[in-house]
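Hi C.,

You asked whether I'd gotten around to modeling the 467-residue construct. I have! Everything is below, sequence then structure, no commentary in between.
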Amino acid sequence: MKKITLLALVLASFLGVSQEDKSVLRTIYTQSLTNGKSYDWLNHLSNQIGSRLSGSLGAEKAVKYTKEELEKLGLDKVWLQPVMVPRWVRGSKEYAYIESQPGKTTDVNICALGGSVATPALGLKANVVEVKNFEELKALGKENIEGKIVFYNRPMEAELIQTFQAYGGCVNQRYKGALEASKYGAIGVIVRSMNLRLDDLPHTGSMTYGDLPVEKRIPSAAISTNDAELLSTMLTLNKNINFYFKQSCKQLPDVQSYNVIGEITGSEFPNEYMIVGGHLDSWDLGDGSHDDGAGVVQSMDVLRLLKESGIKPKRSIRVVLFMNEENGLRGGKKYAEVAKQKNENHVFALESDAGGFTPRGFSFDCTDAAFSQVLSWKDLFKPYLIHFFEKGGSGADVGPLKTESNVLCGLRPDSQRYFDHHHASNDTFDAINKRELELGAATMTALVYLFDKYGVNPITKTSEIKK
């Protein structure tokens, strides 16, 4: 009888606070939509600073700006965490054309992939071999590839509703395309841009040479989807056409940069850490508004919204603006390394790195018990049209913090337009909708509030009470 009574009291307590939780979430959303700071911060980050490639002046300015803005919020702590990052520079604008016959050329749009080596000073021209994957590359063999440019032309799968799944299904040709093609004697690589629509914008992104010696590394560039279609069509008509491209990018020595960190110290459990974050670096073609300026300013606004809503967290809440997610993940690895050295207990981590579009929900990397807790909160989010709660991935920067018991998660906005802008020159502030951005910040804040209030696994605690 005592067990039943105690359980009833616990359940009544949960039911009793649900009205309070509804009120708190309403306050959070109202604050964000009527008194938000994320849009103004992003305006400055995008339009006054611009692109923030690791090791660049833009990245340095972004570190200084975001640290100053966090200090203005009156947080308990704000600091910089040093991290060595790679410095790759694009150089002069790339140039390319298709040569259908001597003297007859058609200009096409390309951009060097991040980490690529340059072409020779006068450029590179050779016959082209089109493949869809590494299996086709292997089947062709060295006799058909040596001395030629390999053209990877596997499109993102348009029938997939989850566009990140479509991206994951073809991004290996960008990342490892040069490494694989070099095994068969190719002298260059052109990769279809990771983009679901047909347009004239090439999309950059990281690539790797693995342990390949410097002298064997070959230049690698992305080509716009329209021009990939053109090149493929021309190859069906004439297998002997040439492709020319010129790029002057180079890898420089590593430089020191920083993760930017701010903290509200917990009132009851200061040694339990919950973090929200995004990556401060971006690619250099646009100003990185969606990738990942949006995640940066949303994460900053989470701490501001907690304060503005009168919420005093039980646990220590940190915002971490990670450096070098795009071409090295050095910031995320450094943060996890330092956390381990200090024996810090990170119970929760949330990353926003999927654009500033309308939030739909979250994906979670956690135990079944913690996920059951999340599902019990679905009705709280329903008025704000947040409905996507699934187990899955979290974020690249928070991934190194994973333990058996903590909760990692990623904000999941509507992704249908994301790859129109991803890593391209149109990832700019004008592509951001203020209200969508602010809804994302509020949704993140709401989840942080709930996990801070109830902990990462209250179901276990309830079962312990019953015993």
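If it helps when you're writing up: The CA atoms of residues 67 and 245 lie 41 Å apart.

Thanks,
B.
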